[in-house]
Amino acid sequence: MNIFNFNKKPEDEKYVGALRRGAAVSIDVWIVLILRVMAMQILGKIWMEQQLITFFEEFEETFGTQTIKDTPEHLNFILHHTIFIHVIIFYSIVVMVGAIYHALLNSCVWQATIGKRIMKIIMVKENGARISFQRALLHYFLSLLPFAFLFYLMSYQIRNHLTFYQAIMSSQLNLIFGILFVLWVQIHLFTKKRTTAYDIICNTLIINGKTSFKWPWSKQLDSNA
Prior knowledge:
Blueprint: H1 18-63, H2 72-79, H3 82-107, H4 114-119, E1 121-125, H5 133-143, H6 145-159, H7 164-169, H8 172-186, H9 197-202, E2 204-208
């Protein structure tokens, strides 16, 4: 039995289509972008700024210039310098800002990010129950897989001086990944409950509704307040 109160009755619940789901995603993209810029500014000021100063000082001492070029010597210096690890950690934290935003809000009493809340849709398990933080986190990272393929294809295209179409058709592996990419992002057009591939894997649904909790951190007892 679902312990959450919704503004819509169970018989009025409908599965959410791509348009409203896309609108919610668009809102969340801008919110996460702002949060990431704030995180980059804060981390850059208190941590990365000094790391970069040290790196460029040591780079100039070694090569007599602060201009980094695409040469084996310069690349080898970067890969073996501590700045390489710091940059990886820095951008990992920036990525996790979005992951935590989606995982916390989708698994809280709202059962929705701010974008979903505005569009009056929620994320639930197949049985209507609230999802866990771990499930929400997995759902987020699975939703990013198409972007990983696009980045790979763009780099492949640039490296081999090909058009986008030529990059896809140049190898069987790229073609297979291309087909999987289309299915990954468009399979909801053919599923009864309008579920994406990552919805199916995570056993989640996006449905119309809005929990009665005022804040994401509200307690369950507040639902009747």
